[in-house]
Design a protein that fits this description.
- The chain has about 200 residues and is α+β, with helices and mostly antiparallel strands.
- The protein folds into 2 domains: about 5-75; about 80-170, Beta Polymerase, domain 2 (2-Layer Sandwich).
- It has helices spanning about 5-20, 25-50, 55-70, 80-90, 125-140, 185-195; strands spanning about 80, 95, 105, 110-115, 140-145, 150-155, 160-170.
- Helix 1 packs antiparallel against helix 2 and helix 1 (about 5-20) packs parallel to helix 3.
- The longest helix is centred in the first third of the chain and has 25 residues, at about 25-50.
């Protein structure tokens, strides 16, 4: 039997997704299943390239990921997939996930650029504007900013409410290029030394 991309998506639907209905499931199971989904996604897309069905395979994987999150309900298990959904809403702001792994039990971490360092040094104004934009783009609810630059919010992704920490960072301003005189060459120094010697 020759394998195609559907073999991998069917495997997830038959084995991993039904396992999520068990009552005795724990965080280790969630971790294993999520890693399994990511591995099967990689393999499915690799095989889909051969038949030119990458978009179909992506759509199927997306449905599987949605089903995974629907089944885990309000468990304390948050994924890079959820972070990406929030990052999509943040456009045109520059943002990327700060998560070290593809999942976390403590919530999501998203890095957001709030623009350039202000010339007047008023960071509070820049942060407040940035927080307002994040709320407007994502619909997330503000909880607190503590410490400065780390903003905690609650965000909806599909039917789940997930805790998100936004790290607000500022991009350095480009320093103006001043004209400067090149240091004299060694040959010039030797000549001057001999002349003034």
């Amino acid at each position: 039997m020759s394998l195609d991309w559907k073999y991998f998506t069917d495997n997830l639907k038959k084995n991993d997704l039904p396992f999520l209905d068990r009552k005795d499931i724990d965080e280790n199971d969630l971790r294993r299943i999520w890693k399994d989904i990511l591995l099967h996604e990689e393999l499915a897309l690799e095989y889909a390239k051969k038949t030119g069905e990458v978009n179909k395979a992506r759509t199927e994987i997306e449905k599987i990921k949605e089903e995974f999150h629907r089944k885990i309900k309000n468990r304390r298990f948050y994924t890079s997939w959820e972070a990406e959904k929030i990052i999509e809403r943040l456009k045109p702001m520059k943002a990327y996930t700060g998560m070290k792994e593809d999942f976390s039990e403590n919530g999501l971490l998203i890095n957001v650029s709030c623009g350039k360092v202000p010339e007047d040094g008023n960071l509070k104004r820049v942060h407040d504007t940035c927080i307002d934009k994040i709320k407007a783009f994502t619909g997330c609810k503000f909880i607190e900013e503590n410490p400065v630059g780390f903003v905690r919010m609650k965000c909806k992704v599909n039917d789940r409410e997930v805790p998100v920490t936004y790290f607000l960072y500022l991009e350095e301003r480009k320093m103006p290029e001043y004209e400067y005189h090149k240091p004299p060459s060694i040959g010039r120094l030797i000549r001057d030394g001999e002349y003034y010697g």
